[in-house]
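Usage example:
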Amino acid sequence: MNTYARQPVAFVRGQGIWLWDEAGRKYLDALAGIAVNTLGHNHPRLVRALSEQIGRIIHTSNLFQVPLQEAAADRVAGITGLDEVFFCNSGLEANEAAIKVARKYGHDRGVHEPAIIVMEKAFHGRSLATLSATGSRKVQAGFEPLVQGFVRVPLNDLEAVRQVATHNKNVVAVFIEPIQGEGGINVSRLEYLRGLKEICDANQWLFMSDEVQCGLGRSGKWFVYQHAGFLPDVVPLAKGLGSGVPVGACVVGGRGRGVFKPGNHGSTFGGNPLAMTAVVTTLDTIKEENLLANAVSVGDAIRGGLAAALQGVAGVTEIRGMGLMIGIELDRPCGELVGRALEAGLVLNVTADNVIRILPALVIGEAEGRELVERLVPVVKAFLAQGAAQPRAAAAR
Ligand SMILES: *Cc1c(COP(=O)(O)O)cnc(C)c1O
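Running the assembly step on the lines above writes:
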């Protein structure tokens, strides 16, 4: 089906943060398959572990014991600080599981029409429940009727959540992407997250942190909630969890613990030995190669370099983000920058119409970070200088 407007390039080989196309041209990969290739391309340790596992066994079934799934779950529990893990195959599935946990949690407490607070501009996936939770009309349009039971508020607005708490007794959970990815790299203030957690505790709601994109080391800690210093009840994960092998997880602790019982949820592929090898190897390598510290230092250097070169340039609205999750907001739609960057040997993405999104692999080195800035800055400046598209305000006049 024609569901993607694709760029006219095919990458056939990768090494670290570098990609090669069919003609042998080399590109710096500042996107990592949309925050997926945590360890970059062709990481020797991942290649070896996966190859060996394929030679042993790829898939069995959740009808039997899966020791590698237990090993992966132990590691996920360890880094999240939570207790129970359900493995699935994608981000929307992890979020679908989270929404089901919230509804079941509500029903178990006698709330027959449980509601979940969600945020404007959030992205949670494209299944019917997750697109209904998503705060984008573009994602929802044409797929109505939407799944009910979501109440929407603006991000970083505690008063809006307090209002809902007083008027809606059906609320059972808050569902938030602490750094919105698709919505334009919108960062939650840490004191906002703490305030939200307090409201959740006061009302016995679940705090559900969608860390599918921002989690797993990208922010400089394993998870964004760890910057705020508390434990959520539900944490959906996917994207970077298997460094490119499709895998997701819904992790629960606190009030979310024990909500799912045998028969409440399932997945045929979920947690198979191949995917679990990818999880174990990814998490162990992040630890052993100190990639959290690397995300902080190289991420800071990239943001610093971008700010030095672009802050104050007409057309650049804001440079923001955390660790290796970076957005540059322009005052005009800039989708065509993706093609211009490719011509300059740089792979990136534009989201929310006017935000350049940088999500490199966590293995990116300091020199590579400088190279990224050196390739990106002239592309942005040339685009803005040529007035390739009119600023929004001007277009509206
Ligand atoms: C990408 C994303 C999803 C959906 O993940 P899929 O694997 O594409 O289903 C959900 N939530 C967030 C925050 C995402 O970035």
